[in-house]
Fold:
Amino acid sequence: MTFINQLANPTRFMALSGSLLPWIAGLSGILFIVGFYGAFFSAPADYQQGETIRIMYIHVPAAWLAMFFYSLMTASAIGALVWRHPLAEVAQKAAAPIGAAFALICLLTGALWGRPMWGTYWVWDARLTSMLVLLLIYLAIMALWRTIDEPTQAGRAVSILTLVGFVNIPIIKFSVDWWNTLHQPASVFRMDGPTIHPSMLWPLLVCAVAFSLFAVALHLVAMRTEIMRRRIRTLTILAADRAEQQPNGGSLIARGPAE
Structure:
């Protein structure tokens, strides 16, 4: 049995995630301290953008994680539809609010960054517009989860919507290459290497890892909460079924201790 198959057991997942959470959260906190110190005290101001460049250390990780969590949801949707992985729907549902939060942070910090650089908080730039579309897809997925009460039907509908919405991810990634946009092109992950000076690059990467570990911790907590919620729902349904099978339509459940 592979490690992934072992994690398919919710009980094993709960035990492993409970052991890992303190370490992930602790390491994330340490990296936040190092990363933000480098970003706000060690890294120099940009020669063109000045101190405004420091928004980058929050904006860029948020953008990466907004796309990462949607990609994670897409993989989970495939796992739910094709392999019926027990935790796939749980992972998918838990990831949606986190991805939506990072998409919103990306848009807000981008607006604050754009005001002094472009003279306006918002332009219908291809990168900005496609990121806004991503946030709307996240919100639609979250709404669909709440619309359908039965978890299996909800999971199937959400998985289909997630797969359809994934077409927006490559649009976000390559929008600055496909169209003439105001948004700057990629400067970290390039075939010819990063174009950012090392004094700015290392705090950015540390902040990105810190945000990523923080997001993983949030995702594990959300998954654990969803597993417990589903267990409670199952126990409630079983208790109701047993009550219906009791004489007098479940009157034993309603009797007081003295009876």
Remarks:
- Residues 250-259 have pLDDT under 50 and may be disordered.
- Residues 130 and 172 are 6 Å apart (CA to CA).
